[in-house]
Amino acid sequence: MPYFICPNCRRRSVDDDGIEGLTGRPVACTSCGFGFLYQILDDYYPAPGTGFVVCNNQGRIIATGQGVFELTGYREADLLGHDVMTTLFEPEGNGPTPAALTLEYGVRRFDQKLTLKTRSGVKKVVRADFFPAYDEDGGLLVAVAPR
Q: What order of strands is seen across the sheet that includes strand 12-14?
């Protein structure tokens, strides 16, 4: 049974086919009205204060949910189109980033300790979970939570 989570309000749901009724459209959030739900492999319970960032198959931000502004100080319009790793996080060595590994191999990466760069220039350590997309478009969901 596929599990879904709303990137905006963090509400979890289950849907057998990922289609909204008989319309053929992808499922949307019935709680907040957000345009799409993100399919995840297993049920996931985000920590309080978690903000979700949705990226395309190149790691560029296409949507943000509640909690991102509170964590980063960036509004969604400031982030759209930017690379998630270079915009929000400090570089972590020379190896591939968790986002790159998730996109390339389609694997989930949990409890990644990263340094978040806020809009005001403050750096803080956060926990990030990376989820690959399970649709033909590909993509990435990043759950950022205070440590």
A: 12-14, 3-5, 38-40
Reported as a single tens digit per residue, the pLDDT across 92-126 is 888 899 999 999 999 999 999 999 999 999 999 99
Q: Which CATH architecture has domain 3-146?
A: 2-Layer Sandwich (3.30)
The Cα–Cα gap between 53 and 57 comes to: 13
Task: Tell me the residue type at 110.
Answer: F
* Average pLDDT, integer, range 50-56: 96
Greater pLDDT, 18 or 81: 81
List, in order, residues 6 or more apart from 77 with CB less than 8 Å away.
none
Alpha-carbon distances, residue 55 vs 17, 68, 77, 93 (angstroms): 23, 14, 14, 22
Q: Helix/strand/coil (H, E, C) string of 12-37?
A: EEECCCCEECCCCEECCCCCCCCCCC
DSSP 73: S
Which residues share a beta bridge with 112?
Answer: 128
Q: Give residue limits of the domains in the chain.
A: 3-146
Give the strand pairing for 123-132 and 3-5: unpaired
- Confidence bin at 78 (pLDDT 50/70/90): very high
